[in-house]
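Archive entry. Fields below.
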Amino acid sequence: MELISQHAKKIMEGCKERARDAGLSFQDESLEYIVTNRDLLQLSPKMMIPTLYDYWVQDVEVLKEQGRYELYPNNPYETVINTRPPISYYNDNNPDWLNVMIFYHVIGHIDFFQNNIFFRHTWDYDFTGRALSDKRLFAKLRSEKGRWVDYIIEFSRAVDNLVGYFDVLAGMEKTASSGVEAMIDYYFDVFLQKNKKAVTRYVREIELYNKMMHDDPVGAERRFLDSVKSRHPEFESLYDKSRKEKKPREGIDILQFLMHYSPFLNREDNRWMLTVLEVIRSTSLYFQPQIRTKIMNEGWASYWHEKLFLGDDRIGGHEVDYAIVNAKVTSMPRIGLNPYALGMRLFDYLEEKAEKGKISFDYYRIEDKYRRRQYDRKTGRGREFIFSVRENSADSMFINSFIDQDFVDRHRLFVAGKRFNKERMTWQYYVKSRRAEDYRQMVADSLYHPPLVKVSVDDDGTLVLNHVFEGKPLVREYIDATMMGLEFLWGGNVCLYTSEPVPVKTEADQEATVKTERPKQEISWKRFRYTMSGRKLARELIEVHGQRE
Amino acid sequence: MNSLRSLYDSLKKRGLTPDQQRVIEFELRLAEDDCAGPAAHAPIAAPRDWSLCGWNDLALMDDGSPASLIPLSSLNTLDALLERDKQREEDGFPRKIRVGRMMKPGRNGSDKVVVVPSTVEEKLIHDQVKAHEDGEGEGEAEGGTGEGEEGEVIGEQPVRQEQGPGDSGAGQGEGGSHELESNAYDLGRILTEQFKLPNLKDKGKKRSLTRYTYDLTDKNRGFGQILDKKATLRRILQTNIGLGRISGQERVDPLDLMIAPRDRVYRILSREKDYESQAMVFFVRDYSGSMSGKPTELIVSQHVLIYSWLAYQYQNQVKTRFILHDTEAREVVNFHTYANLRVAGGTQVASAYRLVNKLVEGENLEQDYNIYVFHGTDGDDWDTKGEESLPELRKMLRYAARVGITIAENGYGVSGKSEVERYVRKSGLLDERNDLLRLDVMSKDSNEGRVIEGIKHLIS
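PREDICTED_STRUCTURE:
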């Protein structure tokens, strides 16, 4: 890996100036490297972070990719990483005009990384530096503990998709929960509801509180508490007692939960494992926003490489070359979902809508189609609007709030279905739906969505995982190994509650089975409990819910 | 089809249990259901597009120049990785590395195979709801853009077809399986060493015929009788790659290459042993209707592994024959056809055994080879008592060095009670000829580990 030439770097700096003038904001420094396919082979299992810790699974990936490369040479990987300074990777034989285009694209990504609030927790440090120190830490641990370090890495990585990413983001907003505020929270959330079950009183108290806040915003909380204490002499001692009680042992961040409560990990000679868990957890947290903003991030970068490239005075004469590459990146495929194309079109669409003032109550009140089309308030605030979208949204919000029927019609989008045609022995693609709701649903379904698993401890010290049912089962083959790792980290039994579809067998089905071999099967969801004890997994049915007849 | 019917009727006259009738009728219907076609019950997953994260900058943003090839050399850590995996077992954790095979189907059956390790990081993640067992029917919805009314078919993609069924019969060109062999040896070595597959104790009674010939076969670096140009060029390239004088991107200018004296490779005269193949392996597979999906997959993957193991044991001096059967048996030329061909017919194991016996007799193979027969089936047999199969099997046991029967249950019948299993067990051959005949029964959801276990049982 080497840095790009001074010549290319100069071009990059020129691109930065123009991008700044257009309103993008990002830090001054950036690093650009030339990479060969071999580098990529080794970087991709490390998520393109050159300093990420070593782990044998990555070696397997490298070997596998190498084998794959023998059969199908190609090179598909990500190019910009969200570090301080941001690092981007290039092929070394790009002509200047192509570099300009890619630089603008990269700058779009950098702007997105550094301004979208879903990346907020990555803003304050440089991940490559942190990764490097983690890598050294692991190397040191390996020299002391040998292969056990790798086991701990393996077991932690098995649940590193279940980190409390949104809790971390929310925690950055919250102030410390202690003192007066915490007491008031306790009064309303626990004391009033649990100790005295009366709704009317609750409402009355809220009204009282609001009135006091209105009259005297500064001292109201304290005065309110005083009145509470005088009316309920037992309040203070109950509050103290609740503070002393161990926090409710439930959470959704399994690694964090283990670090706090696992008796095994908190034994003196096992404490080094905590650092491993923390590294895995923070690494995972770092990558969480990337995967949740793919459409926006690529759309934003594509939007800007197009706008800025065409306005760049340095590369006149290469418009046709550019058009070919650009078309490859940003054309809507006949079948398939190109995040670059979709994101860019949506930003364009939103800019135009905001420019005309169509994102407003007045506009939505109009029911006449013609008047809707003619509606144009010339607000001049289109850019501003998409900048605020790029700052405040993630893919799911972006898709669900902004894809509407107009957008779907304009770009003639549809949901494509696939069905198996027995006569012709082909998969047939057909237009399944052109409704915006269906299209939105289809995109939403393809977004990243890890299962929600609540973790707690029951009375006899078993770690209980409760998979909240969202219409999908877990991948069953993976449960065994994951739970075995958890059992090790917890140092005791682990059980998992999850729902699985069970085919409903009826008499009619039996008949159909013989006829077509593959009947449409009705399924019912049943709740199962997996218990891992002594590295043995047991599965049992516990209850029935949502059975369809 | 009428012949199947009449066969069924004659079987029925001899008396069948309701269970057996059910199984046979099921297969009959498959065979008769014309619109289903031969591959209709094959496990074809819906084609899938790139996932959202499959789209990325480097792949999209280039100027269309072909991916540049680069010199890749092996990191040589596969053995280290496997060593680590063995250690896992000692620490009480299951193994994680699977030695995988990547197969790129080529034209006329010349598949290219590369041996790669693979592993999965298990996590709790969402799965698709599988309404159908083998992913047929309706595929996942995808995005699309352009013209077309709702409901209109806008394109189609052929399901990967089997090779034309017309190319049966032995002796039609060779080739084909060559590429498989080059890696099979590696795979066999890894299997033997890492998975502790036993070595063959006695490689059979047939000694290999060795003659000595003198030929320009040995290679010598530096001096010799004839310059081996290809090998020399290869060494020169290696040297220059090592020196960093060749990189993937630029054209190589031959005038620019450095040549070390030892890069010259010569052929010199030497005495050579002329080996002959010692082992002949018959792979026999049931390809009837009930084999669709998982059973076929398991059998084929087990047979690849067995083949690899034998290739290693016999230092590549192994010949293979591939036989498929439903109610009738046929020989196919190469492994690709063997692995992929499907029909929807009934099942008669005897037909296959009869064909093997006929081939062995007809070509007098018994004299020259150690003969191995590996038979994979789901255990259904219309010949429910083995009245025809067992005599053929007995005959086979007279000459074979090992007969291994694998039953991969298809899940339609009762586990552990398939016809083949029942009559083979009942016949007492398993105890009587324990040195020659082995039977392995696995369920349809067996994993690779189980398959390797099965091999151990079949060959030990």
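CURATOR_NOTE: The longest strand of chain A covers residues 523-533.
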